[in-house]
Specification:
It holds the Pfam family Ribosomal_L22e. This protein is α+β, with helices and mostly antiparallel strands. The protein has a single domain, classed as Gyrase A, domain 2 (2-Layer Sandwich), CATH 3.30.1360. The protein contains 6 helices and 7 strands.
Length: about 120
Amino acid sequence: MSKTLKSHYVVDFSDAVSELQLNVSTFVEFLNSKFRVNNRKGRMSQNLKTEIKDNCIILDSETYEFPKSYVRFLVKKFIATSNNSAYRDAFRLVAHPKNKDTYVVKADVYQADEEEQKE
């Protein structure tokens, strides 16, 4: 009898990597430092498996169930607190229209175009 995954989410950084050369492994390091299990940081390694595949990060957990909104919160926090403050204005997080367990980090091209037209 096999165990079913309690939580399975995917975050697609392919647009962010091509636009600003964002390193996906820095997000995994950020997860290691910020992910909370039972209100305690630093317990991610035993409760969460992360896999990087083609600029996508796959988050699987068999022992700990966490909501999709927590993944959204962590990705937004990572974008806002990155070394480059331009990330916060350049990217936005969008839920994938067909796959409910996937988030896509997209370049916010429209906002940049509007700012250039104002100048």
